[in-house]
Amino acid sequence: MASTTDTAGLQRALTDKLAQLISSDDWKAALETAAQFHDYSWGNTLLISAQCPNARRVAGYRTWQSLGRQVRKGESSIRILAPVTIKDEETDDRRCIGFRAVSVFDISQTDGDDLAEVAAVELDGNRPSEVWDQLRAMVADAGYSLEWADLPAGHNGCTEWKTRRVVLANGLSEAQQAKTLAHELAHIQLGHESRQPNEPRGLLEVEAESVAYMVMSSAGVVSDSYSLPYVASWSNGDVGLVKSTAERVVKVAAEIIDRITALTRDLVPA
Asked: Is the pLDDT assigned to residue 217 strictly greater than 90?
């Protein structure tokens, strides 16, 4: 059975590898570019996909100009919803009072300088059956169904809180299916449904992917080529952010790994 100490070691390994990865000038440039793009809600992601199914990187007109790219004349904008906020005079905080439609454009609608990309290479190969079976069982135990669907470009999976569904994208390799399922299970186990309104999505994604990385690593599935770029992108290269998630991440990862390794032990003949 995996111990919490072992899991903490996996967390440290992730942090150390991330620090090495983002030290190069190319990665610094890629992370600076990634920071220019907004973190769109799932609802806006669906709006983008409905209007431009092959969209992969979306931003406003002026953001594209700041990145050295120009929206081509005659291109139709993609309409999404942006929050309208006002400042609370008593608390000095801003609160949302509604939404308005705004225009954005996909990179395919622009010309100009190439962007420094943060690329995650999809995992290939098979998945350990005991890992897959236990991940599915834990998702079911939490009260969620597991389904497959065509998701917007760049999305391997999602957790729908209202409908209690975990959805994986069609066409993923077996290894990527397991990795994505571990990621979505982590969202559930980390309590992100209640935390989501008040905490940055980037933080929640760093936590979920860190758990998934440790779960897959403990099963012998090497996922550095996917997890490191993913975590680097969502944390914007902030190693301190990855470290600050350690306590929550280690606890949840250990719980998942314990269940998987307990099953594996039970299957081995005495």
From this structure: yes
Among 161, 196, 180, 182, smallest CA distance to 256 is for 182
Per-residue pLDDT tens over the stretch 15-27: 999 999 998 888 8
Q: CB–CB of 76/97 below 8 Å?
A: no
Q: Tokens in use for 186?
A: 């982590």
| Distances, alpha carbon 3 to alpha carbons 53, 138, 139, 211, in Å | 44, 19, 22, 14
Cα separation, 189 vs 49, whole angstroms? 28
* Contact present, 200 and 187 (Cβ < 8 Å): no
Task: Give the separation between CA 209 and CA 245, rounded to whole angstroms.
Answer: 11
